[in-house]
From TrEMBL:
InterPro entries: Beta-barrel_TonB, Beta-barrel_TonB_sf, Plug_dom, Plug_dom_sf, TonB-dep_rcpt-like. Keywords: Cell outer membrane, Membrane, Receptor, Signal, TonB box, Transmembrane, Transmembrane beta strand, Transport. This is TonB-dependent receptor. Its main location: membrane. GO terms for molecular function: siderophore uptake transmembrane transporter activity. GO terms for cellular component: cell outer membrane. It is a multi-pass membrane protein. It is found in: Cell outer membrane.
Length: 645
C-alpha cells in the first residue's frame, strides 16, 4: 500500500507540474478554441453544490474580533449546536443531528481533522481576519471525502493582487482575566501579495458558578480553567504571468489549556498542550483549454495531556497532495476532475510503542451543467481507496430551478441527494485497550429539498431559505462500555435516522444614506434517532444524546455615522445526556450586546468596542456538569492604517 500511495503522490505532483491553472479566471490559451466561459459565480466548492444549503459566516464579525475562534463565531451566527467543555475548552460542532466526527473541516482544500480523533476542536481554530467561512449543510462525500456526513466547514483565504497596504493592531481586555492581542497586515502591488496575521488570547476563567452537584447549590469559583493561545498565519502569492500564480500558506496555532474539571469532581490538575502547524503550496496556470491546480501540504499536530496520574503524548504527521483540472466543455457545461493522496503517520502512546501509518487515495469528477437560464444541475462522484478498507462510491446529484424571477424578487427551488462515508479513525482501530480493527466504514444517504427567496427593493434587501432534509447512516460508529465494563470500545450501530428543517434569513435596511440596519436569524429543528430496546425488549426510537430538537440564533445591528449597536441571542433546547433519554440538560437562552465607534482621519482609523457577553447572567451547560461563564464584559481598541492608492 505504501507503493500505491507513493505512486499516487508522485503522479499527482508530476502531472500537476505539466498542467498549470488559474483559480481566478477560466480563460483559454491564445491557440485554443475560443469558447464563451460559463457564467458561474462562487468559490471552488459552491460552483458544484447545486441544490445544497450553503451559508457564509459574517466576515465583519471576523474583522472586528480578530482571534475569535470558530466555536465562538458559529455560536453567534448559525443554527448549529456547539458542545463545549467550558470557556476556551474543547468545543465541537455538528450538523443535522450527527456528531463532531461527521463534520468535515477544510482549509484551502485540505481536510484538517485530526486522523486520530476524526474531528476538529473549533476552540483551536481562530481563522485569519481575511478568511472566508462557508457552511455546507448535509452530506457531501463527493466534494469533501471521508467524514462529510452531516456537513462541512470550508475555510478559504482568497487571493487578491489589487494594490493595497494596510496594517491593523487591536488590544482587548475583559472579565475573568481575558486578554486578546491581534495584529494583521497586507501588502499587494499587482504581482505580489503578502498577508500576515497574529493573535494571542488568554483568560484565567476564574468565574463564579452554582455547583448543582452539592446540597443547596453553593456558589463556587472555577478552578484549573486558564488557557492561552497563540496563532500566526502567513500567505504569500506571486503572479508569474497573466495566467499563472504560485502561493504558499502557513498557519500555526499553539494552545495551552488547563482542563476544567466537572462539577463534583476532584481537581486532578489536568492540562493539555496543542500545537498545530499547517503548511501548503499551490501552483495554478493554464493547460489543455482549462485551468489546473497543483497543491501539496504538510501538517503536524501535537497533543500532550497530563494530570496527577496520567501522561499521554501524541504526534501526527500528515502529507497531502492534490491535482485538479477544470475545463469549460461548452458555454453551459463545466467539468472538474481531480485526484488526492494522503499519508498519516501517528506516534500515540495510547497505541503502544508502534507507529501507526495509513495511506489514502481518491479520484473524483464534478460536473456543473446549466441547460436553461433557470436551471443549474451538478453531478459529482468520488471513489476512495483506503488501506484496509473499501469505501463506497459516493455520488451526488443536485439542482436549482428559478421558479420566479422579477426585478424585486427571485424564488428558487432546490433539491439534492448525496451519498457519504467515514473511515474509522486511528483511535477507533488502534487504541489500547478497546480499539477495533474490524470496524466497517460508515456510509449514508442524505436527501434535501428547499426554497430560497431573494428580495431587492429600494431600501430593503434580504434572503430567506427553508430546507427540509432526511438522513440515514449505516454502520454508525459509537464508543460504549465493553462487555466486562472495564473500558470503552467502538462498535458499529446498525442504523441512525434523522430528519428536520432549517430556516435561515438575513436582511439589510437602509432608509437614508447614514443609517443602516442589518439582522438575521437561523433555526434548526432536528430529529436524530437510534432504535434501542426498552425494558420489554421492544425497539423504540431514541433521540441521540446531545442533539437538541430546537436550536435558534438571531442577531441585529444598527449603524449610523461611525457608530454601531448590536445584539445577538441564541436558544438551545433540551438535550438528553444518555442513550435511554432518562437524563437531560434544560433549555437555555443567551444574549450578548455590543456598541462601538469608528473614527477616521487621513489614512488612519480607530475603532472602540464594548461587549457584554451573557447579558442575562444565565446559568447553563452545553455539556453535563461543565460550568460556563456568567455575565462578563470586554473592551477593545483597534488602530488601522491604510495607504491610499
Amino acid at each position: 500500500m505504501l507503493r500505491v500511495f507513493l505512486t499516487g503522490l508522485v503522479g499527482t505532483l508530476v502531472l500537476g507540474a505539466s498542467s498549470p491553472e488559474t483559480a481566478y479566471a477560466q480563460a483559454t490559451l491564445p491557440d485554443s478554441v475560443q469558447i464563451q466561459p460559463i457564467h458561474i459565480s462562487g468559490a471552488r466548492y459552491t460552483r458544484f453544490a447545486a441544490g445544497t444549503k450553503l451559508a457564509t459566516l459574517d466576515t465583519l464579525l471576523l474583522q472586528r474580533q480578530p482571534g475569535i475562534t470558530l466555536a465562538e463565531a458559529l455560536q453567534q451566527r448559525s443554527g448549529l449546536y456547539l458542545k463545549s467543555y467550558g470557556n476556551g475548552m474543547t468545543a465541537t460542532v455538528a450538523f443535522r443531528g450527527t456528531t463532531a466526527s461527521h463534520t468535515a473541516v477544510l482549509w484551502n482544500g485540505f481536510n484538517i481533522a485530526l486522523p486520530t480523533l476524526g474531528l476538529s476542536d473549533f476552540a483551536l481554530l481562530p481563522p485569519a481576519a481575511h478568511s472566508t467561512v462557508t457552511l455546507q449543510h448535509g452530506p457531501s462525500g463527493a466534494l469533501h471525502g471521508s467524514g462529510a456526513i452531516g456537513g462541512a466547514v470550508v475555510l478559504e483565504n482568497p487571493v487578491s493582487f489589487t494594490p493595497q497596504q494596510t496594517l491593523r493592531v487591536q488590544q482587548e481586555a475583559g472579565s475573568f482575566g481575558h486578554q486578546r492581542t491581534a495584529a494583521q497586515g497586507t501588502y499587494a502591488n499587482g504581482w505580489l501579495t503578502l498577508t500576515s496575521s497574529y493573535t494571542r488570547t488568554a483568560a484565567d476563567n476564574n468565574f463564579k458558578y452554582q455547583d448543582i452537584t452539592q446540597f443547596g447549590q453553593p456558589t463556587q469559583e472555577q478552578e484549573n480553567a486558564a488557557f492561552h493561545q497563540n496563532s500566526f498565519a502567513q500567505d504569500v502569492h506571486v503572479k508569474l504571468s497573466a495566467t499563472q500564480r504560485i502561493s504558499a500558506r502557513a498557519w500555526w496555532v499553539n494552545t495551552h489549556r488547563q482542563i476544567q474539571p466537572a462539577m463534583g469532581s476532584a481537581n486532578s490538575h489536568a492540562q493539555q498542550e496543542d500545537e498545530n502547524l499547517r503548511l501548503m503550496t499551490e501552483w495554478q496556470g493554464q493547460l489543455a483549454k482549462g485551468t489546473t491546480t497543483v497543491k501539496a501540504a504538510y501538517f503536524k499536530d501535537r497533543l500532550d495531556y497530563q494530570d496527577d496520574g496520567i501522561q499521554s503524548l501524541s504526534m501526527v504527521h500528515t502529507y497531502q497532495a492534490q491535482l485538479e483540472h477544470e475545463r469549460t466543455l461548452l458555454p453551459n457545461l463545466l467539468l472538474q476532475v481531480g485526484t488526492e493522496a494522503q499519508r498519516f503517520s501517528a506516534e500515540v502512546q495510547g497505541y503502544g510503542k508502534e507507529q501507526q501509518q495509513e495511506n489514502r487515495f481518491s479520484a473524483y469528477a464534478w460536473l456543473r451543467y446549466d441547460p436553461l437560464d433557470r436551471l443549474q444541475v451538478s453531478l459529482n462522484v468520488r471513489q476512495a481507496w483506503v488501506e484496509g478498507f473499501n469505501p463506497p462510491v459516493t455520488p451526488t446529484l443536485g439542482a436549482n430551478f428559478t421558479l420566479l424571477e422579477r426585478p424585486a424578487s427571485l424564488l428558487t427551488l432546490k433539491g439534492n441527494v448525496s451519498k457519504s462515508y467515514r473511515v474509522p479513525t486511528l483511535n477507533d482501530r488502534f487504541w489500547r485497550p478497546g480499539g477495533n480493527p474490524n470496524l466497517q466504514p460508515e456510509n449514508g444517504w442524505g436527501y434535501e429539498a428547499g426554497v430560497a427567496h431573494t428580495a431587492k427593493h429600494a431600501h430593503l434587501n434580504g434572503q430567506t431559505e427553508l430546507t427540509l432534509y432526511k438522513l440515514k447512516v449505516q454502520d454508525w460508529i459509537q464508543w460504549q462500555p465493553s462487555a466486562n465494563g472495564a473500558y470503552s470500545e467502538p462498535v458499529n450501530l446498525q442504523t441512525v435516522r434523522g430528519h428536520g428543517l432549517e430556516l435561515d434569513t438575513r436582511w439589510t435596511y437602509q432608509p437614508v444614506a447614514f443609517w443602516t440596519f442589518t439582522g438575521g436569524a437561523a433555526y434548526g429543528y432536528t430529529i436524530s434517532e437510534q432504535a434501542l430496546p426498552n425494558a420489554r425488549a421492544e425497539l423504540q426510537d431514541r433521540q441521540l444524546f446531545y442533539v437538541p430538537k430546537h436550536k435558534a440564533a438571531a442577531w441585529a445591528e444598527a449603524r449610523c455615522k461611525g457608530w454601531w449597536v448590536g445584539v445577538d441571542g441564541t436558544f438551545t433546547g433540551l438535550r438528553y445526556t444518555d442513550q435511554d433519554n432518562n437524563n437531560w440538560l434544560d433549555p437555555y437562552a443567551l444574549l450578548n450586546a455590543s456598541i462601538g465607534k469608528t473614527l477616521h482621519w487621513s489614512s488612519f482609523e480607530a475603532q472602540i468596542q464594548a461587549q457584554v457577553q451573557n447579558l442575562t447572567n444565565t446559568q447553563y451547560q452545553t455539556m453535563a456538569y461543565r460550568a460556563m461563564p456568567s455575565r462578563h464584559f470586554r473592551l477593545s481598541l483597534a488602530l488601522q492604517w491604510a495607504r491610499k492608492p
